[in-house]
Amino acid sequence: MLSPPTLLHVFPTFAVGGSQMRFAALANRFGRSFRHLIVAMDGRTKCRERLGTGLDVAFCEIDLQPNDTFGNMRRFGRLLRKTAPDRLITYNWGSIECAMANWLVRVPHIHIEDGFGPEEAKRQLRRRVLTRRVVLSRSTVVLPSRTLYRLACDVWKLNPSRLRHVPNGIDSDRFGMRRAAPFPCAGTGPVIGTVAVLRPEKNFLRLLHAFRDVHSKMPCRLLIAGEGTMRTMLEHSASMLGLDMDVTFAGHVNETERVYAALSVYALSSDTEQMPVSVLEAMAAGLPVASTDVGDVREMVAEENGPFITPLDSGALADAMRKLLSAPEQAAQIGAANRAAVKERYDQERMFAAYEALFSGSG
């Protein structure tokens, strides 16, 4: 009996985030069809809790050093030779040193690019563009958003034959059944909410200022689900803005369907995104979305939701949220259209099939 293919996954972090949660969903779906070796470059492995029992998964220790690119390339090279995987899978810019090391080892390589941190929110850095252009030139590059696909073609100048556009997909029934008990939050009035890791590029200060604007004109509440290094600062900011009685910081929530069940409007305030899974989940839950115009968000939502995708401005975001709260019948119609769009375009079965082909070498 043939052994399952061994896949070496290199993540900048295996803390809970979009790419990590997608990997967990894929691993759980594929079971023991693949053997997974995982490197968490920063040593954080919180998302391992999302992996089901009975999987063939191991975490690899590697002594990486900050600002030691060539030394880390040698370390990755040794790991590649020691583990001899059938395929190397790297995630985002933070894993580029492993992709560079693989130029000498030549393991079949898949690079998955989900988006950028705050340093590339407004523009591509020339050094990174040139590095991607060279290092990824003979790799298969997977891109969940059309925005990223166009960037890979037009700016990174990668050969289109090497690129794969694989949209994120979700279990729409999980979020659409509305059986979950709504997550409790303080205050009175309809609830605006968001689900995200508390990182700078999510620009939660924009959301807090937009919420303050809406809150000053009508009773409402804000629910923020997620953990991250910015939580203490954001809690302090909410207090300074006089919002602490009507803003709930829920921390990390495993059953995010409970968050969506509590909301009237889903809000996204990011400076940079590509294809945020949280927006898909909110759409599947039948929610209207008020969001900054980032990545593929405008293309993802139903046409009826388009007017509520705004410039990167707290006033514009506040206006979108306020209009949705003020017109509940219209908001419900938009939510229904969003749910239909998710079921039609972003079903997880398509995503599973695409990644199974990539992981097995036939995609």
Q: What's a quick, concise take on this entry?
A:
With 363 residues, this protein is of the alpha/beta class. Helix content is 40%, strand content 15%.
Question: Explain this structure to me?
Answer:
The protein is α/β, with parallel strands linked by helices and 363 residues long. The protein folds into two domains: 6-169 and 347-360, Rossmann fold (3-Layer(aba) Sandwich); 172-345, 3-Layer(aba) Sandwich (Rossmann fold). Helix content is 40%, strand content 15%. It has 14 helices and 13 strands. It has a seven-stranded parallel sheet with strand order 3-2-1-4-5-6-7, sandwiched between helices. Strand 12 (289-292), helix 11 (297-300) and strand 13 (309-310) form a beta-alpha-beta unit. The radius of gyration is 21 Å and the shape is globular. The two termini are 23 Å apart. The mean pLDDT is 94.
Draw up the topology in text:
Elements: E1 6-11, H1 18-30, E2 35-40, E3 57-59, H2 69-83, E4 87-91, H3 96-105, E5 109-112, H4 126-135, E6 140-143, H5 146-154, E7 163-165, H6 172-176, E8 191-195, H7 204-215, E9 221-225, H8 231-240, E10 247-251, H9 256-261, E11 265-268, H10 277-284, E12 289-292, H11 297-300, E13 309-310, H12 314-326, H13 328-345, H14 348-360
Parallel strand pairs: 1-2, 1-4, 2-3, 4-5, 5-6, 6-7, 8-9, 8-11, 9-10, 11-12, 12-13
Helix pairs in contact: 2-3, 7-12, 10-13
